């Protein structure tokens, strides 16, 4: 079913374009009205188009300007009227508060063909963490090992400030 796979690949590319440009109406057109969406943020599960829409608007509001979103390692499996895809996304852009911190996100989507058109009926997002210390893994490359077992947001912000201000390690922490 190469044509179904090609259709879904193009469908997901258009959806990513809608995410990048924060076009909420276009983005929601890719989802079934009864979508179940599992996110990495509370409340963890969003059900129905209205809840998912509010969650996307929350995500969009966290960025100043467009969202950088690169898709990597996309895998698609199709049957006659159902499909699933999994991928990695590198999510980047300038966040409110001035933080520019790219993060790898894992995603799985399940699709159904409804009235001849594909629609996402289930989506699951996760962020890799180090289970030893529950810190988010901010790797520079998707296959790079986590340095120091994971990084905290505070540690990353402090490191960024040190670099911007030309300070030695420990100087920013003493200011806090």
TrEMBL record:
It comes from the Bacteria. Coiled coil: none annotated. Pfam families: SnoaL_3. Residues 8-129 form the SnoaL-like domain. SUPFAM superfamilies: NTF2-like. This is YybH family protein. It comes from Nocardia suismassiliense. The lineage of its organism: Bacteria, Bacillati, Actinomycetota, Actinomycetes, Mycobacteriales.
């Amino acid at each position: 079913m190469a044509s179904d796979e090609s259709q879904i690949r193009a469908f997901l590319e258009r959806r990513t374009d809608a995410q990048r440009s924060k076009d909420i109406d276009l983005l929601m057109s890719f989802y079934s009205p009864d979508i179940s969406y599992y996110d990495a943020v509370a409340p963890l599960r969003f059900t129905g188009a209205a809840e998912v829409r509010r969650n996307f608007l929350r995500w969009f509001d966290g960025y100043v300007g467009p969202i950088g979103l690169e898709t990597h390692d996309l895998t698609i499996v199709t049957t006659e009227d159902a499909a699933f895809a999994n991928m990695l996304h590198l999510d980047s852009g300038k966040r409110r508060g001035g933080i520019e911190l790219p993060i790898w996100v894992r995603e799985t989507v399940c699709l159904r063909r409804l009235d001849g058109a594909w629609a996402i009926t289930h989506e699951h997002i996760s962020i890799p963490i180090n289970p030893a210390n529950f810190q988010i893994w901010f790797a520079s490359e998707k296959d790079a090992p986590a340095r120091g077992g994971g990084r905290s947001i505070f540690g990353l912000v402090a490191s960024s400030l040190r670099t911007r201000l030309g300070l030695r390690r420990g100087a920013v922490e003493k200011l806090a």
